[in-house]
Design goal:
The protein is mainly beta. It contains 1 helix and 11 strands, in the order αβββββββββββ.
Length: 154
């Protein structure tokens, strides 16, 4: 069952729902007392002292995995640009770096207002093909990622 969070989730690390309503079998626990759990009320047919059985299941929380796309304008006679776009189920924020081999040649920081897009200034690159790697460090809600691109400098 797909579920969309409206708050930062910690998963099984949060308290289990143990409110009075749940113990009496009359209703699930209020949101502020339920941690990161899904509660489902199941009507009992035998109408004993509890009208409902309310099991709960901890929510498994995983970081969103971003996809990395980039376009490059690289030149041998002047500085160029790298336009990097990351997309994920959560808004990516944090450090983005561009490397040529092991040497960092550009960097910037994604903020929530950037909506996953960032323009970075590239240095002059010699004429020809270059392998550039874009690395995203990740955040509390989005995993890190990297992708290598072959770029032709003019």
């Amino acid at each position: 069952m797909p579920v969309r969070a409206t708050k930062v989730m910690k998963g099984m690390a949060t308290q289990q729902p143990q409110c009075q309503e749940r113990r009496e079998g009359v209703a699930p626990c209020p949101v502020d007392e339920s941690g990161d759990h899904i509660q489902v009320a199941v009507v009992k047919e035998d109408s004993g002292p509890m009208n409902y059985v309310i099991p709960f299941v901890g929510v498994l929380v995983q970081k969103a995995v971003p996809t990395v796309a980039a376009t490059f304008a690289a030149y041998s006679s002047k500085a160029g640009t790298a336009k990097v776009r990351l997309s994920a189920t959560a808004v990516p924020t944090g450090a983005v770096k561009v490397f040529k081999g092991t040497r960092q040649i550009a960097s910037g920081v994604l903020k929530a207002g950037n909506k996953g897009a960032l323009a970075l200034r590239l240095p002059k690159l010699a004429k020809g093909k270059h392998k550039l790697t874009v690395k995203y460090a990740g955040s509390a809600t989005v995993s890190g990622a990297k992708r290598t691109f072959t770029v032709r400098s003019r």
